[in-house]
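Complex record, two chains
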Amino acid sequence: MVELRVPAQREGEAGGIGVIKNWKVTAWLSSPLAGEPPALDAILEWELSKRLGMKHHNKLTRNVPLSDIQRVPIPLAKRTISGHDVYACSNPIIPEPTAEWVDHMARRIDTDLIALLLAPNQRKSLLVASGPYKMLYRPLRIRLVDRVVWFARGDKTEIRKLLKSVNALGSHRGIGYGLVERWELEETGEDDYSIFADCQGKPVLMKTIPFGHSLQNVGGYKHSFGGAFPPYWHPETYMEIAIPC
Amino acid sequence: MQLVKTCHIHCFSEALSPITHMMGTSGNEAIINRESVLSRGVIRQVPVLSGNAIRHKMVREPGALHLVKACSLDGKLNIDQANYLFNGGSLTESSTTENLARIAEMQELLPLIRLLGGSLRNQVIGGSLIVERGILVCEENRETIIKLLPDEYSVPETAFRPCEDFIDQYQYTRGDAQKRADAKNLISEEVQPDGTNLMIYNGQTVIPGAVFYHGFILQNISPLEIGALLNALNEWDALGGTIGGQARIGHGQLNLSFFMEDAEDHYGSEIVPREIVATYRQHVDANKEKIIAWLNSAFPRKGKGKQEELA
């Protein structure tokens, strides 16, 4: 498969579908956030591949090689760092939570309801302490934050088009957590905070990037192992990385 | 399949009886489910109905019961089929292959499951429904409710009272057969009483008359899925329309009203709830045999009696 690219996504290339600028992207939330907020490039890839009707929007598994799938051209600029192309967008930034608590998600088979619905030869003792019918009372980390912010370099119109149908962020969106009230894009002028930001004259890392020479003189990161570009969870993207901290 | 844009259904549910949707106990007292809300710079603990409870009690369970009834599956399901319909199923086998034909068939035959998602034995299939949590219409949630409602709708100012105004207590007693006047006639003398069963139990409730705001966001769906959701809400209402615990003694009754935002189909025609519910029910009736065949192929019986599948 050939990787798709939109010409204007490359820094310095003329023409294309829009104007590449620096943006502060804010998702204003109307319900608490469960789990961790996602990376902006991951959201955009997910949304675009879903719209393009591509199989892998929900069927890409750890077992499917990335070379077998077609990557979608999201409207963010790319930078080559330590030999890898990464999108110019910072990791998600959230304010200090106003409140933080543990909610629980319960799941159990309603045996009193289904007993008579089962065929007589299926009515047998059911193990609910483990296995497929295990009852759950799973703890969820919930944080009360009013927004999630990313700094990105890309095409505002196309980013906005993709984000307008992203209704929720984080884990357990299906049960009402992380609902997005509105998306906001503000231009940050010449200040590009998508990968590095200036802190008292010293660059600090804003995005998870491959570990390498580009980190000389950079502060605010820890050395780790994982993905530096989407799909972040796929083992083929795992490498030595630097994570902002 | 006609696609519509994302549809948002807004609901107001008025408590007709005490609501006891609990989060645990403190000593001997059951505590109502609450969450932190920032109101005018102060954090308050405000009662909330969890999205998980609404999703199951209002949509999945009544929707599955309707499918079972419509397809005459009473007393014929196997445990995996029941688990899939009523709880969303479990991943029990390796997921090295994806059977797209099976997923496509399911999405065509079972709009309710396409909406809710679920797990076959070897593949997880995402849904397209976001169920919002039920937030109490009160002073602390004023800003959130105003933000969530479309501009043309509003809530009367008098409804925004402090949340503690909506909290009350209940107390009941569990009886003890030994204390009955006719206990000597009922209980054998050979049985030695082992303590007493008499117990007082109590807890917090949200009072009748309180209103919860909640909603359903349906992403990239066809009218059939909206029909499946509204049909499930109808079925839930017909079954008593309860949420939370203690429904056996009359708690948890809700009176749900709703309105739809962006309820247009692909061609700009307005979607009429009654019509799309009827269309969904016709769809299920017309595809009974195929639905049964699909359930059999997705969840064949294991071991003995494998040949006895849904007739």
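Note: The longest helix of chain A spans residues 40-51.
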